[in-house]
Design goal:
Number of helices of chain A: 9
Strand content of chain A: 15-25%
Number of strands of chain B: 0
CATH topology of chain B: MetI-like fold
Order of helices and strands of chain B: HHHHHHHH
Strand order of the largest sheet of chain A: 6-7-8-3-9-10
Structural class of chain A: alpha/beta
Helix content of chain A: 25-40%
Distance between the termini of chain B: 57 Å
Strand content of chain B: under 5%
CATH superfamily of chain B: MetI-like
Largest interface: A-B, 29 and 20 residues
Number of helices of chain B: 8
Number of domains of chain B: 1
Helix content of chain B: over 70%
CATH class of chain B: Mainly Alpha
Number of strands of chain A: 10
Largest sheet of chain B: none
Oligomer: heterodimer
Shape of chain B: flat
Chain lengths: 242, 220
């Protein structure tokens, strides 16, 4: 589904991704973790072309992201993304947030889009909040709406960029519950997260990054029980004893 | 020292009303036209196409570096000189103000557009919206909302500045007051009256903007 091959990226003279390679098969859940500034967010933003990269190739469902001939908006419409700061559109009600791209990008009718939106809000337990504005919702609720918004496009895979790190601790659970459910239903997911409980529960593999490099790419159980590198050990020790 | 005679205010009212209507019309047209053209200029300034951004930038710099009264006079005098046919003072005023204010609204819209967080653009694009769709549905509505108080404050300034059409003899409120003042030989009283009206309108608008600012602050 997603193939990342030898991707390197620089911001000016600073290298932020160094020869990164990994892959995500259909129905797989892959967790990307690592210290801050290790390039994890940058890597997943390269997957839907929000960030350009200078070397290597990324293909999603056989379509090359870096190819200038690729219709990026069309590809992005099929790849859902959930952001750290939710990024709901604050000037639109929840239902409008869910309907906008369905109508403008997929060409669905208003009725179709609304029906799909309601069904998804129901699914994330927020049907009663359809008419509210994002500012009237808690962080956890906003993030669940953001997941519903991504799902409304019927994506072939979902990218999560630290979906719980901007949340108050008591709201993390409600968002993770939705994510676990999605994973169990077989959604292809790439999650940048520090939620190691989530990773243990649903991740097939864990990709550990440091300084723009993929240091480890291992089955989740092996990564947690016997991390191969010193850097991963240090990282895990720090994050698990926290 | 002479004495004030405010009895002139009564018969002047129909003229003042007509003048005020023109002033308001000029303000509204220049505001709407200025915001539309200003927004287009802002988009051009922020465009990655260098020539486009440079031309828009030059236009804004030019307009912001010339006193308005000179632009008004220049347009009124030079256009007939070039085209051979005179433009009426009123038409001339509308065109000049729209063109001039566009430069100021451009800068307001530009900072409004830049005030929308980068993450909003990412979110819109991640959903597959194209650049134009992102601008129209996600960025501009938020930019306008963020900038409403500043846009209105600029419009109050515009409302006051319309009195400069006095220079080309367009019949705005100040001109009406001036004419009545001369006819009744009561110029001081008439100038006081127009000052009072300008003050009353601008001051209440300013208060309204302050109220609005508070409400916008709560919504955000």
């Amino acid at each position: 589904m997603i193939e990342i091959r030898n991707v390197s990226k620089w911001y000016g003279p600073t290298q932020v991704l160094a020869d990164a390679s990994t892959h995500v098969a259909k129905g797989e859940v892959v967790v990307v973790c690592g210290p801050s500034g290790s390039g994890k967010s940058t890597l997943i933003k390269c997957v839907n072309g929000l960030e350009p990269f200078q070397q290597g190739t990324i293909t999603v469902d056989g379509i090359s992201v870096g190819d200038p001939k690729t219709d990026l908006p069309r590809l992005r419409a099929r790849v859902g993304m959930v952001f750290q700061h939710f990024e709901l559109f604050p000037h639109m009600s929840v239902e409008r947030n869910l309907a906008l791209a369905q109508i403008k990008v997929l060409g669905r009718s208003k009725e179709e889009a609304a029906a799909r939106g309601v069904a998804l809000l129901d699914r994330v337990g927020l049907r009663a909040h359809a008419h509210k504005f994002p500012g009237q919702l808690s962080g956890g609720q906003q993030q669940r709406v953001a997941i519903a918004r991504a799902l409304a496009m019927d994506p072939i895979c979902l990218l999560f960029d630290e979906p719980t790190s901007a949340l108050d601790p008591e709201m993390i659970g409600e968002v993770l519950d939705v994510m676990v459910e999605l994973a169990q239903e077989g959604m292809t997911m790439v999650c940048v997260t520090h939620e190691m409980g989530f990773a243990r529960k649903v991740a097939k593999r864990v990709v550990f990054m440091d300084h723009g490099e993929i240091v480890e790419d291992a089955p989740a159980a092996r990564f947690f029980d016997t991390p191969a590198s010193e850097r991963a050990k240090t990282f895990l020790a720090r994050i698990l004893h926290h | 020292m002479g004495e004030f005679d405010f009895s002139v205010w009564q018969p002047s009212l129909p003229f003042i009303r007509d003048g005020l209507l023109f002033t308001l019309r000029l303000t509204l047209v220049a505001m709407s036209g200025g915001i539309v053209i200003g927004t287009l200029l802002a988009l051009a300034r922020l465009s990655p196409i260098a020539p486009l951004s440079r031309i828009a930038g030059a236009y804004v710099d030019l307009m912001r570096s010339i006193p308005l009264v000179l632009v008004i006079l220049w347009f009124f005098l030079v256009i007939p000189f070039i085209t051979g046919s005179p433009v009426g003072a009123e038409t001339s005023a509308v065109i000049t103000f729209t063109a001039f204010e566009a430069a100021f609204y451009c800068e307001i819209m530009r900072s409004g557009i830049q005030s929308v967080p980068r993450g909003q653009v990412d979110a819109a694009q991640a959903l597959g919206l194209g650049q134009a769709q992102t601008m129209v549905h996600v960025i501009l509505p938020q930019a306008v909302r963020n900038m409403i108080p500043v846009l209105l404050t600029q419009t109050i300034v515009l409302f006051q500045d319309t009195s400069l059409v006095y220079a080309i003899g367009a019949k705005d409120m100040l001109k009406a007051a001036d004419v009545v003042g001369k006819n009744y030989n009561r110029p001081v009283e008439m100038i006081m009256l127009s000052a009072l009206i300008y003050f009353a309108i601008c001051f209440s608008l300013s208060l309204a903007v302050k109220q609005l600012q508070k409400r916008v602050a709560i919504i955000r």
